[in-house]
Write a structure and sequence with these properties.
mainly alpha, 154 residues
């Protein structure tokens, strides 16, 4: 009969290896395909770190982030472009932003803030266009009023 080593009697088993039925040899982790860790360039299964082991205690496994709605991003970009080039393009941004918010409510994607910012900046651009048009109209109206009033006195 084989005598056991006196130093190993009081040691707890390793938490990373499970003894197999063949006499204390660690078995391969069944959670990893084929019993081997993933090869370089491959990803481990979801919820596990490389090597196939569960995350250590105290560490949370976070779900993958939801994608950002592309129409919301387009609305935000168009609204910024409208402020610096042609403020009437802000109407396109308002349209895209409203459609994006409806789609976000339906699908649960991220980007509601971008869509809302696109709508607000789009309306600001349209408002600036209206204000600019009123200022120009008032300027030329005042100019023509002054020209007509000075020409009728002579």
């Amino acid at each position: 009969m084989k005598e056991s080593d006196p130093g190993q009697e009081n040691q707890p088993p390793s938490p990373w290896a499970t003894p197999s039925a063949a006499g204390g040899i660690p078995a391969a982790d069944p959670a990893v395909a084929g019993g081997y860790p993933p090869q370089p360039g491959q990803y481990p299964p979801p919820g596990q770190i490389a090597g196939g082991y569960p995350p250590p205690a105290g560490y949370a496994v976070y779900p993958a982030p939801r994608p950002t709605n592309s129409m919301a991003l387009a609305s935000f970009i168009v609204s910024l472009v409208s402020l610096f080039s042609c403020p009437l393009i802000g109407l396109v941004s308002v349209f895209l932003g409203r459609r994006a918010r409806d789609e976000i409510r339906r699908t649960g994607e991220q980007g509601d803030g971008l869509a809302q910012a696109g709508v607000i900046i789009g309306w600001v651009g349209v408002g600036l266009t209206v204000l600019y048009t009123l200022v120009i109209a008032a300027y030329f109206g005042f100019f023509f009023l002054m020209v007509n009033s000075t020409s009728s006195t002579y």
